[in-house]
Amino acid sequence: MAKHTPCVVVCVTNQFTCASLIAAGAARARAEGWRLRVVHVAQTGQPFLAAERAPDALDQLFSHCKNAGCDMTVLQSGDVVKAILTFARRAHARMLVVGRGPSTHPNALLMALQEGFDGDVVMVAPGL
């Protein structure tokens, strides 16, 4: 595909359940004929792999990306939303796929992404 082909960007954390987000993003990218990109942004100043199983989870997510035919980019930033939006713009993203937490109310990250992104922001319940 051409370098400027639109893409779906999947935003993951360092949790095993994010594999379902990659699968959902891959399905949407295939349906549209777009590329798939996966990004994880760690907050500057926070321990990057603090959770006990975070290294294993990220390793598993890298494997899911490989199986989906895409790369996973890992960034660190003091402004997670800005980093995701900048990554999405540079990747020519038309859709962001993000995890939906247990609450039915949108969280601040999701609302900021919806406000700052020109394309669709799709929420997926991780682990389904």
Please give the CATH class: Alpha Beta
Percent strand: 25-35%
CATH architecture group name: 3-Layer(aba) Sandwich
State the helical fraction: 25-40%
Question: What is the mean predicted local confidence, pLDDT?
Answer: 87
Enumerate how many helices there are, as a single number.
4
- Overall geometry comes to globular
CATH H level, superfamily name: HUPs
H/E element sequence: EHEHEHEHE
Radius of gyration, in Å, reads: 14 Å
Main pleated sheet: 5 strands, parallel
Question: Would you write up a description of this structure?
Answer:
This protein is an alpha/beta fold. It has one domain: Rossmann fold, CATH 3.40.50.620. Helices cover 38% and strands 25% of the residues. It contains four helices and five strands; from the N terminus they run βαβαβαβαβ. It has a five-stranded parallel beta sheet with strand order 3-2-1-4-5, with helices on both faces. Helix 2 links the parallel strand 2 and strand 3. Helix 1 runs parallel beside helix 2 and helix 3 packs parallel to helix 4. The longest helix is centred in the middle third of the chain and has 15 residues. The model has no long low-confidence stretch (mean pLDDT 87).
Task: Give the SSE layout.
Layout: E1 7-11, H1 19-32, E2 35-43, H2 54-68, E3 72-77, H3 80-90, E4 93-99, H4 108-116, E5 120-124
Helix pairs in contact: 1-2, 3-4
